[in-house]
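Service request form, structural biology core

Requester: graduate student, group of Dr. S.
Request type: structure prediction, single chain
Budget code: on file
Notes: please return the result as structure tokens.

Sequence provided:
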Amino acid sequence: MPQYKIVHYINQFFANIGGEEKADIAPEKRDGVVGPGAGLQGELKKLGIDAEVVGTVICGDSYFNENLDKAKKEVLDMIKSFNPDLVVAGPAFNAGRYGTACGTVAKMVQDELKVPAVTGMYVENPGADMFKKDVYIISTKDSAAGMRDALPKVAKLAAKLLKKEEIGTPEAEGYIPRGIRVPLFREKNGAERAVDMLIKKIKGEAFTTEYPMPDFDRVTPGEAIKDITKAKIAIVTSGGIVPTGNPDHIESSSASKYGRYSIDDMGETAHGGYDPTYANQDPNRVLPVDVLKDLQKEGKIGELYPYYYTTVGNGTSVKNSKAYASEFAQTLVKDGVQAVILTSTWGTCTRCGATMVKAIEATGIPVVHICTIVPISLTVGANRIVPAVAIPHPLGNPNLSKEDEKKLRRTLVERALKALTTPVDSQTVFEN
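Core staff response, request fulfilled:
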């Protein structure tokens, strides 16, 4: 028997079960190593740690995030059955749903099983912001190509946790800063260190502050619409809906551009982060143009803006997401748009969408975010949020008849309109 037993949590992709088409698989457990667990175990051996990955717990990314309470219980019970000394989740790199799941698993293992845990993510993974204060998250590259770089760092920190050794600084150990301050002794007093930093600044030399200020990146909620029946409403999506053929060649991942198209020209999705089948069958499942046109005809809204703005939120950086929305928001203001409905699909797509929400709302236009992974939207800072149906079809359900599906979509859109007419002074989730 090894001295230490480790359980590894991974998603369907790293378990070699499948990609997006298998993202809905329920949790399962397997004895021993699966996928990257072999590399993790090897790195621990290199460190001289008598540890073995005794079990692997696997769960589809969509299943975990769309069935959160059920999935948490199922996964926790499976992990508990192995009686581990440590749990490793991921690494998730920049996969948003996977990062959210890894952070959730690591935190609940620590909180409920009192077992140490470590995971790994790219710094812009929405799961990093959500869980960096609660768990150790090794900072990784943005894709699985960084696995060889990540595993030695994960193993090094795992070894210290197993041996109950003191954990060093984020710089020394390679984890994302947690915002925790600890007392320590310095050779120089505060005044001397302050002068040293000032001199370096004057000389243009690099220096590190001892007290980095937190970045509270929030925007004031836009004022509620007083009369929605007279309001001009625009629609925006990070779900990649584009005209047939994707004429501007918006990338399926890490988009370098956005598009502006007629609301009468929706054909498919360019998004590479979720199963495109349902969106390609009916783009209204991601961008609810059909229902909004009906509401306009019925006089329930004043006017539907004749264009939609779109990008692919899959892995798109926070910087670019903000830049795109800040740019086209000026056009929306100029054209007299009074409110925006913005839709998102999966993990990093929701991060991208919520970032765009804030950039638009910074102009004063109220925005409601319709998304499936609500915790990510809350973490990023959207003010008005409406929970959606499912990642591949946030505003639809292909299991329903076309008539019933449209009724479902209308219910969600009407909920979004209610959100836009409701005064809020803090983040609010409109669930009914």
